[in-house]
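Chapter summary example: a protein plus zinc ion.
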Amino acid sequence: MNLTKIKIVAFSAMLGLSINAKANVHVHDQGEVFISQQGSMWHIEFAVPAINAFGFEHLPENLQQQDIVKGFVDSLSSHKRYIQLGSDCSLIASNEGISDLYQVNKALPAHKHEHHHDQDSDEATHLNASFSFTFDCQSGVNSIKLPAFSSLNELNKLSVQWITEQGQGAAQVYNDQTELTF
Ligand SMILES: [Zn+2]
């Protein structure tokens, strides 16, 4: 157990470096995937426009919209809908930044809100849905499958970057070809 913890700490330090390389892009129907490997640990991070994840990019304004966001977060527990590595890999962690960003576990704003800007709340806000998975793989990983398109409405392209022990690379993956070989 301790060994695993040490590995995760070292791994997180490496991730801190890789995050600097990320461009902050937000183009509807296009998402980004960052893959990093250290030893047997593989970390896969998705950033997709929220509009492709659950159809809007503002905070939920009613219970129905809250449920839509929660439904998307729930779908992440079936990680194979988004990412498939070889059978030698087991999921050891998953994370999402959606619940906090969209405040789905907080009370909805009261109807009589102090501000009168509620109607304009979709003024040029563009938010991503970010989520990640960490796997422990007992053998090398040469390719991955990204079936995420079928769960991300209208998404047609994922820009993938990777940093593995074999080197760095980048590729575009389209919704008609979802397997990526390093
Ligand atoms: Zn947007």
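Key point: The chain has four helices and eight strands.
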